[in-house]
Amino acid sequence: MSLIRTESVYKSFGELEVLRGITTTVEQGEVVCIIGPSGAGKSTFLRSLNQLEEITSGKIFIDEQLFLHKENGVLVERISASEHKRLLLEMGMVFQSFNLFPHMTVMDNVITAPTRVKKVPRDEAVADAIEILRQVGLEDKHDAYPSKLSGGQMQRVAIARSLAMHPKIMLFDEPTSALDPELVGEVLSVMKKLAESGMTMLVVTHEMGFAREAADRVLFMCDGIIAEESEPNELFSNPKNPRTRQFLNSVL
Amino acid sequence: MAGTTKTKPFFTRRRIVLFSVLLALIVLAVAMIATRPSQDALVGCISEELRESAGAKYSETYLNFGILNVARGRDIRSGSPETYLGAFGQIFDANDGAASAVANISLWMPSLIKGTGITISLTVVSVLVGVVLALFLALGKMSKILPIKWFCSGYIFFFRGTPLLMQLYFVYYGLPLISSALAINNRFMAAFIAFALNSGAYVAELIRAALQSIDKGQYEAAKSLGLSYAQTMGLVIVPQSIRRLIPPVANEFIMVIKDASLVSLIALTDLSRATQTIMNNTFSVLVYVPAIVLYLVITAVFTKIFNKLEQRYSVYQ
């Protein structure tokens, strides 16, 4: 069963075409990494899935339902508002710059959305948050404010905050790019654990090691299209597209 | 926060000095009250002085303020006022010198304090109501719904673009001419309405700037978690804006304390008008000293309060 399916998704910022026909599928339980040079449209594609960017044309299916269909900037079809909201909640998002709420403690960051959006009783939300924070290795930081945490800890809180909504899909937008090198590992290991637990993940990353180890499939994006996609071993050791080869040579 | 709180001893050096000064002042006040001359002595004093110069016919006023007993009479022949000050059991003829200054100031204090009360209360209620009004104006100006956006932008443009004095005149003198139903007979009420409407426009721009200074990622994170617009604003954006808002709002507050002197022109007696009235009656430039001190004290106290607020809202940084 596919959780995400897109059909020829186009997106332009004015004259600039950032996405030029992205068609792909993410199956349940699959971990897909998107790699590619900067400006390839990786983040834009990820952000257009959960409506942080408006696409220009194309169809997006979430959980096998037609989520959005636009042609040349005109909305053709969209599911009902309540279903739309429900499907948005199936996608958790982790940002490059964490975007934690700085005026809330770690615990409040994690329980705000469950209590306010899903109306989970506070004590249930807290019990759940304690468990999730334990999973990301931050059980002793409940009362800390984000400013007192390291970058790696902040990103792990951000992951916990998304997980607290129990999404079916986790979207990661370059989760380790803003981190000091020595802090990258702790975030990646949390993500690996998450992948092993069966979470469906779509990860835009520059961490080739992570893509090789954790991904079921790797998409190489370039100039707004998916230039190549295959299993990580295949893509890294035997790239077909010359652009892929060129990119891998420059980063590895 | 556990483990970071440090208990401070109650008697810090600054507090000991402060308490000593307060104690000394209290002792002094008690001594002065205890040894003050009686009302009869004061009356006697004045009567004698005036009787000598004007025979049996004179008018006089006696005032008693407890700590400093002040008697005031008028020299019938010259018509000039005379002030008598009694403290520590002594009676001075206080037409000049330091004793005169103290006596005069203590005579003026009640009306100056009353004026200060008007100044402070007008400023506090106007700015508080203005801030609430401003929050809606700022959100309205940022709204995507065009009529709301136009109305709020127009409001802010109008009230920032015309003089506060004219707005005050219009509310107090203009509205009754349009319809007697719009007449606001209470001067304080009229001043409050004009000041709150005006303050709302200024603070709205401060709030808009503060809201827009919040990182776009905060909106995105809130959206990706499913928070509604109202929840995003109420739980995420506004709480973070408050700390950034405190310094500019404090500034606005201190401006309004002084703008409040405009209410003189609708004959509401604030601190400035009280000062001017005394000045007109006594021809004594001395009245500016307590007036200035009072203004500075108000400003200092409110600056302190806003600093404390800022600290409290900075706890997460």
Describe this structure in words.
The complex is a heterodimer of chains A (252) and B (317). With 252 residues, chain A is α/β, with parallel strands linked by helices. Helices cover 37% and strands 29% of the residues of chain A. Chain A has a six-stranded mixed beta sheet with strand order 7-8-9-3-10-11, with helices on both faces. Chain B is α+β, with helices and mostly antiparallel strands and 317 residues long. A four-stranded antiparallel beta sheet of chain B has the order 1-2-3-4, sandwiched between helices. Chain B is flat and about 85 Å long. The relative contact order of chain B is 0.09. The chains are: A alpha/beta (252), B alpha+beta (317). The interface between A and B is medium-sized, with 30 and 21 residues.
**Number of helices, where a helix is a run of at least 4 consecutive DSSP H or I residues of chain B:** 10
Number of helices of chain A: 9
User: How large, in whole angstroms, is the Cα Rg of chain B?
Assistant: 27 Å
Domain count of chain B: the total is: 2
- Parts with pLDDT < 50 across at least 5 consecutive residues of chain A: none
Number of strands of chain A: 11
Strand arrangement in the largest pleated sheet of chain B: 1-2-3-4
Average pLDDT for all residues of chain B: 84
Helical content of chain B stands at 55-70%
CATH topology of the largest domain in chain B: MetI-like fold
What series of H and E elements makes up the topology of chain B? HHEEEEHHHHHHHH
Report how far the terminal alpha carbons of chain A are from each other: 34 Å
What structural category do the secondary elements of chain A indicate? alpha/beta
| Silhouette of chain A | globular
